[in-house]
Amino acid sequence: MRLEPTKYPTDILQTLTPILTYCVLPVVNKALKALDKDALVAFDHILTQKLYDIDKADVHRFIGGSNDGFLYARAFVVGMGKSFYEMMYHKEYRHIKKEMSRLLVHCEQLLYLATTCYEKRFGEKLPDSNISYEMGANTQE
To answer: Fewer Cβ in 10 A, N or C end of the chain?
Structure first.
């Protein structure tokens, strides 16, 4: 079931950054700690791919932010879940009345959960996905 973009009033979005950071990410972190090496690597690679896939000029115009700010806002989009992510991916965000860039939404911590968990648990560096989630890496629109 797809949610309609209008179900995300921007005043509610503003309150979700701390909820993601302090309520959702600890649960995700606990779940990651229970994963084996392969599953933890898979989680990180899927996250990286999703961040890469919404690294698009039109999404950046809508979300706004500097290089890092746009990355952290994309992490927020992923952290919001599948329906919200797909709304951004499929460019259905134009129904949100106010631009997200004015809301300062972000979820930087999501970027580091898998890496930190992997390095602490297995004592080695997380294998690279060979995909960059940095702004401008995705040149396919």
So the answer is: N
The CA distance from 81 to 107, in Å, is: 12
For the chain, the domains span 22-122
Give Cα 112 to chain centroid, integer Å.
11
3-state secondary structure of 19: helix
Question: 30: Cβ–Cβ under 8 A, 6 or more apart, which residues?
Answer: none
Looking at residue 125, the DSSP 8-state letter turns out to be P
| DSSP structural state of residue 128 | P
Question: How confident is the model over 65-82, as pLDDT tens digits?
Answer: 888 889 999 999 999 999
In the block, tokens 């973009």 appear at: 5
59 has a pLDDT exceeding 60 = yes
DSSP-assigned letter for residue 135? T
> What is the Cα–Cα distance from 115 to 70, expressed in whole angstroms?
20
